[in-house]
Structures are given as structure tokens and as C-alpha cells.
Design a protein that fits this description.
- The N terminus and C terminus are likely disordered.
- 45% of the residues are buried.
- This protein has 429 residues and is mainly α.
- The protein is built from 18 helices and no strands.
């Protein structure tokens, strides 16, 4: 492999510089609005929780591959901070064209952080198969489309602002699955496409931090914040307990599997996100947490064995059963709870159900369609596509890792294949 492929000096820095120039121009002409500063400062602890969750927790959560840890955390930080600035710019444009009300800069940043969760989830599906330039392009496209989806839901389907943001799990999961389906599937025998106890430990650390901060995420912009926090916590608690129970029941030797705990413990937070404000009895939230955990554990078995191979979908981090299926369950639960609550008001019940089902179908359809289109765009040679044999490698992006693996093997007296020597020597040439 030629060293020209590895050199992003002529692409990535200039793309970042161009984006920052746009953000600076935006800050000069559309100056930062400090409206509503006092009310937002009162919720700063929750805002900081969400900031930790998106940058820190997701960065560790994505460290599932044995040789892709630097890129998982480093690239996540870059695309998040770029995406937040882009998201705030989009908010300003919507205000400028009178499509949205002016709500202040801090609320715009809060919405931007929540919106970037869609990108973090999608990144998990294409993890290790895209370079940094492709991730930046995917971030920009996905953010724009997600804002379009939210605008359609709020403008034509009468979905509330907070609820439209909670479609972020659904949109991010299926956008990422559609995008990753366009990439060649790696060989099942590829050694790099595996985890190690160390990478599992870091990824589980990310899951723990996601679990801790999830109530703040679901309640940051909610009207009934205390109710959203309470319901989210109960759903998360039950999903974590259920994850351990089902993991022991479904494994061959009755032991716990880290994959199950890593994913299913979070399912309650995703499932309850659509209904966290409207549930008045905690036992309903607990049932949703149990069902979300169950569908995640069962989905991890069925999808990987029955659905993904025929469709040739390689979901690196398992975002389908971690975020996609619980989000679908949460959307269906919202419709069921709406029918129960509005049962006596039969005149408007059908109309309300139609609006919520329409918002669900619109979100998932737009995510799949634009995800496929984005996947084909990312495969163009202009974006320096990665060959299948070079998936899941940190050493192509990080200078300190170019010869680290080789030196450690030589120091331990291990035999190094000549082809690997030639490959690594070409990288340092």
C-alpha cells in the first residue's frame, strides 16, 4: 500500500479549516445570542452531563476493537466538536429564515449535543471501515438530514420539540445501518475485527458512564424534567438487572457475556426516551426497561446469525440491537400509551395515532434512504476509501502507532511474517 494513501495532509486539514472559516463568519455576522441565559444556567449540571455523555462516554463505548482504540476516542472527539458547531449554524439559519424561534445560544448547543448522538450511533455501525475524511462528510450530511426530519415532524406532524429530538436513536441507528451496508463486508476470520479483554473493559466503562448520564440526557429539554429523570432511572435499573439475568440464561455455560451487559444495560434509556414525560406510574417504565433489555439480548443472537449475513450488513458495534430495536419498541410503546390515555376522547384518537405513526415512519424512512445515498458517496475514490484488508487499523492515522506493534513483537521474540515487515516498512517510508 502506497504511503500516498496514508497522507491526509492535502484533504483533512483543509476541510477542517474550511468548516471553521464558515463557523467564524457565522459568529461574526450572526453573533452569538445570549437570550434566556439565566434559565439555561439553572440546568447547567444536566447540560454538562450530556456533554460528558456524548464526548467521554461514547468515546469509550466505541472502543470495542482490539486495534482501533485511538481512532474510536480521537475521531469521536473531533466529529462531535465539529458537529456541534455545524448544528448551531443550522439552528441560526432556521431562525434567520423564520423557520424556528430564537431560543438562545445555550439551548442551541444543548440541542446540538443531543443531535450529535445520532452521528455517534451511526459511527458505531461503520467503525473501522471509514477514514476521518469520510466521517466528517457523513457527520455533515447526517446532521442536515436529521434537522430536516425534525422540521418535518414538528411542522407537519405536530410533534413536540423535545420528542422530535428523542428520535435521535432511531435515526442514528438506521442511518448508520444503511450506510454500512454499502461497504464491503470484512472476512469473519479477520483477526482485527475482534475485541480483547482490555478493549471490552474500556467499552464497558463507556457503557457505565452512558448509564449514569442517561437520565440527564432524556430530561435536559423536557417539560416535566423530574418525571423524565425518575422514569428513565427506573427503566435503566430494570434493564441492567434483566441484562445479567438473560445473559446467564442464554449463554451455554451459564456465565455472563460482556456483549450482553454492554448493550442491554442501556436499552431501558433508549426505550423510555419517547415516553419519559408521559408515564405517571414508575412500574410502566420498569416494564419498558425489561422489554428493552430482552429485545436487545435476543436481537444480538438473531440479527447477527439470521439477518445480517443474508443482507451482508456488518454492524461493527451492534448499534441495531443496542439502539435501533429498543427505539422501535419505545416508539410503539408511545402509541400504545397514547391510545390508553386518549381512549375516552375517541374523536381525536385516530388523528393523534396517525401523526405519531407518521413521525416514526418518516424518521426511519428518511434515515434509511439518506443513509444508503451517503454510503455510496463515502465509497467514492475522492474520499480515499479503505481496502477491506486494511479495516480496523489505528496505525494508518496515528504517528505513534506506525511501528509499535512490530517493535513489541520483536522485543518479545515473536516471529513476524515477512509480508507484515514489508507493509510496516512501507508505512514508515
Amino acid at each position: 500500500m502506497s504511503s500516498n494513501y496514508l497522507n491526509f495532509r492535502n484533504s483533512v486539514p483543509w476541510v477542517i479549516l474550511l468548516l471553521e472559516a464558515l463557523f467564524l463568519v457565522r459568529s461574526y455576522f450572526l453573533f452569538l445570542r445570549l437570550d434566556g441565559l439565566d434559565s439555561l444556567l439553572s440546568s447547567y449540571p444536566e447540560f454538562q452531563d450530556v456533554n460528558h455523555m456524548v464526548i467521554f462516554a461514547f468515546g469509550f463505548f466505541l472502543m470495542v476493537l482490539r486495534r482501533y482504540g485511538f481512532s474510536s476516542t480521537g475521531f469521536n472527539l473531533l466529529i462531535i466538536v465539529l458537529g456541534v458547531q455545524c448544528s448551531v449554524l443550522l439552528e441560526d439559519l432556521l431562525v434567520f429564515f423564520y423557520l424556528e424561534a430564537n431560543e438562545g445560544i445555550l439551548k442551541s448547543i444543548a440541542k446540538a449535543l443531543i443531535s450529535m448522538t445520532a452521528v455517534a450511533i451511526s459511527t458505531g455501525a461503520v467503525l473501522g471501515k471509514t477514514n476521518l475524511l469520510q466521517l466528517i462528510v457523513m457527520t455533515l450530511v447526517e446532521l442536515i438530514v436529521f434537522y430536516v426530519s425534525r422540521w418535518i415532524n414538528r411542522r407537519y406532524l405536530e410533534v413536540g420539540d423535545h420528542l422530535s429530538l428523542m428520535h435521535v436513536y432511531l435515526f442514528g441507528a438506521y442511518f448508520g445501518l444503511a450506510a454500512t451496508s454499502c461497504f464491503p463486508e470484512p472476512s469473519p476470520k479477520l483477526d482485527k475485527n475482534r475485541s480483547t479483554p482490555k478493549s471490552d473493559l474500556f467499552s464497558m466503562l463507556g457503557s457505565v458512564f452512558l448509564w449514569v448520564f442517561w437520565p440527564s440526557f432524556n430530561s435536559l429539554l423536557a417539560q416535566s424534567r423530574s418525571q423524565a429523570v425518575l422514569n428513565t432511572y427506573f427503566a435503566l435499573a430494570v434493564s441492567a438487572v434483566t441484562a445479567f439475568m438473560l445473559s446467564a440464561l442464554t449463554s451455554k455455560d451459564g456465565k455472563f457475556r460482556m456483549t450482553h451487559i454492554h448493550s442491554a444495560a442501556l436499552a431501558g434509556g433508549v426505550t423510555i426516551s419517547f415516553t419519559a414525560e408521559m408515564i405517571s406510574h414508575p412500574w410502566i417504565a420498569m416494564i419498558l426497561g425489561l422489554l428493552g433489555s430482552a429485545i436487545t439480548v435476543l436481537g444480538s443472537h438473531c440479527l447477527q446469525r439470521c439477518l445480517n449475513p443474508p443482507l451482508k450488513i456488518h454492524d461493527t458495534s451492534g448499534v441495531h440491537f443496542t439502539f435501533g430495536l429498543p427505539a422501535v419498541l419505545g416508539a410503539l410503546a408511545q402509541v400504545v400509551l397514547l391510545v390508553i390515555r386518549e381512549w375516552t376522547n375517541s374523536s381525536s384518537l385516530g388523528y393523534l395515532v396517525l401523526l405519531h405513526v407518521g413521525a416514526f415512519c418518516q424518521t426511519i424512512s428518511l434515515a434509511l434512504i439518506t443513509g444508503f445515498i451517503t454510503g455510496f458517496i463515502l465509497k467514492t475514490r475522492l474520499l480515499k476509501i479503505i481496502p477491506v484488508s486494511k479495516y480496523f487499523e489505528d496505525q494508518f492515522y496515528w504517528e505513534a502507532l506506525l511501528s509499535k506493534d512490530l517493535m513489541s513483537e520483536l522485543d518479545l521474540g515473536q516471529t513476524v511474517h515477512p509480508a507484515r515487515l514489508n507493509s510496516l516498512s512501507s508505512l514508515t517510508a
